[in-house]
Amino acid sequence: MATVYSTYAHRNDLFATLRKKISPDAHEIGFIAEGNDSDYSFWRPFGQRQVIYLQNEIQTGADLPDNVQWVVVKQEAWSKYSSISLEQWAAQHHAQIVASASVTILVNAGQETWHLLHVEK
After folding, report:
1. DSSP letters for 50-108
2. Please, are residues 106 and 9 in contact by the beta-carbon 8 Å criterion?
3. Cβ contacts of residue 87 below 8 Å, gap of 6+?
4. Residue 112 and residue 44: Cα distance in Å, rounded?
5. Bridge-partner residues for 104, per DSSP?
């Protein structure tokens, strides 16, 4: 029970450690994840940010929207959307992984790896 309580007690801001590494002037945050994954943390500060889902761009090989310089990626979801590795994609798009974190969103899923990338424009 302690694991369940401690996990869900922080669910409203699961990605605080990654979010704090995003530049304060960033207004659009790219997000690549699965259907049950929460993007709530990346809307903060509220009214100043927007989360843009990028699964279609990754699947089709389209360019990222010009306004997206920060991208959050769930490692376990990446292979569902791309046939190349995240590292290859990052190199092709002038992006660098600036931080990674192990996050438990659902207790039964356990810890999952998330990456924050910065895209040089």
Report:
1. EEEE-HHHHHHTPPPPTT--EEEEEHHHHHHH-SS-HHHHHHHTTEEEEEEEEEESSTT
2. no
3. 97
4. 22
5. 111
Q: Tell me which of 15-24, 48-57, 107-116 is least confident.
A: 107-116
Distance CA 46, CA 32 (A): 20
For 31, the 3-state DSSP assignment is strand
Task: Quick: pLDDT tens for 41-85.
Answer: 999 999 999 999 999 999 999 999 999 999 999 999 999 999 999
Cβ–Cβ < 8 Å for 100, 81: no
What's the pTM?
0.89
The fraction of the chain above a pLDDT of 70, given in percent, is 89
- Biggest alpha carbon distance in the chain? 46
Token output for 24: 């304060």
At 100, list the tokens.
């990674």
